[in-house]
Every structure is written in C-alpha cells, then in structure tokens.
Amino acid sequence: MIEQSALKKIVLYRGDIVKLGVDAIVNAANTSLLGGGGVDGAIHRAAGKELLAECYTLHGCAVGQAKITDAYALPALKIIHTVGPIWQGGHAQEADLLRSCYWQSLSLAEQHGLRTVAFPAISTGAYGYPLKQATAIACQTVAEYLTRHPFINKVYFVVFNINAEKVYQEALARLIESEQIQEEETEQA
Ligand code: APR
Question: Domain 4-188 is of which CATH architecture?
Fold first, then answer.
C-alpha cells in the first residue's frame, strides 16, 4: 500500500546531482567504492580527493548495500554510496538487489538524521539495467519506504537527460493512478 502523502514527497529533477544542496546525495558506485566513471566519477571529481581517502577506510561495499561518507566540497551534507546490480538478463536477482539499493540508502539516511535525499538512476548507465524496469523499481520502492517511514521529507530522482525524465514521469504517473484506484476500491469496499 502506498499513501498519497508519500507520493507527494517525490520530486523529479533534471540536472547534475553534484550540485544539489540536499542532506544526502546517493552515488551509483561499484563494490570497490574507489571511484569510476558516470555519476561516481562526477561525484568524486566534485567532492575532491578527501572523498577517496575516506572511501579507502570503508573496505568496499556489497551489491545492494550502502555506506555513508562526508560530502567534502559538495553542497550536500553526506554522500551515500550504493552498489547497483549489473544487468544480466533479469534472472540473477537484479530486481531485488536494485530494490535493496534504494531501501538501504533511505534507511541509512534516516539512521543519520538526513531528511532530503537525491538519487541518480542507479544501474541504468554502465551497469546496463533497462531504464523502464529500473525506474519502476525505484519509484515503487521509494514510495513504499516513504509510506512506512514519514521521517524522510523529500526524495529527488535526478535524471540526466530528457529521455530518462520522460520515463520517470510516466512511472510516477502510473504509481499515482494505481494508488488512486486502490483508494477508490477501498472506499467502495
Ligand atoms: N548527475 C546525475 N546523474 C548522472 C550524472 C550526474 N552527474 N552522471 C551520470 N548520471 C546518470 C546516467 O545518465 C545514468 O542514468 O546516472 C545514471 C547511472 O549511470 P552510471 O553512473 O553509469 O552508474 P551505473 O549504471 O550504476 O554503473 C555504475 O559505473 O561509473 C561506474 O564506478 C561506477 O562501476 C560503477 C558503474
């Protein structure tokens, strides 16, 4: 069950995640946590070399899990590093692992008293996760978490291009519509 109040906390933002002055930005990292390309590279470049130094102390991160560091030169307060699944055709628990990335990242934010969180489209770049499927998981998981954990005030889905923006808009619209249908059915019951 997803509540409307939770859906209202989700915001779509097209732009560069490193520029967001939210409590926590989420990094689509790899298991080494020692940087890479894509959003990982952008975050490490913008945060500065102290970020890498702190990442060395974390000794990596498992797929589907999340770890937290300071944000250094970034406007955000903290960076939550999560490791998405590499797409292998959909029969290697990719959906569960991706769901876990979103759930564990929000749980870690809450544990650290962080109320506004920005996510990139985890696994949809170098890791090859089909964008539509990944977006549906991202929206559903975040909406469920926000329904059960009102502590978090706002979640930004940060998209880096117009195509991704369209896919997220459609996924969020479908979620709102299905929620309204559920509410109507409950009222009629
Ligand atoms: N701000 C927001 N989104 C971004 C940015 C940015 N600055 N740069 C890239 N993106 C988007 C991409 O367009 C894509 O939609 O982030 C999404 C995730 O793509 P990747 O960064 O390639 O992440 P992922 O698919 O999870 O692959 C992770 O790539 O960079 C390496 O070290 C990383 O090995 C890890 C792997």
Answer: 3-Layer(aba) Sandwich (3.40)
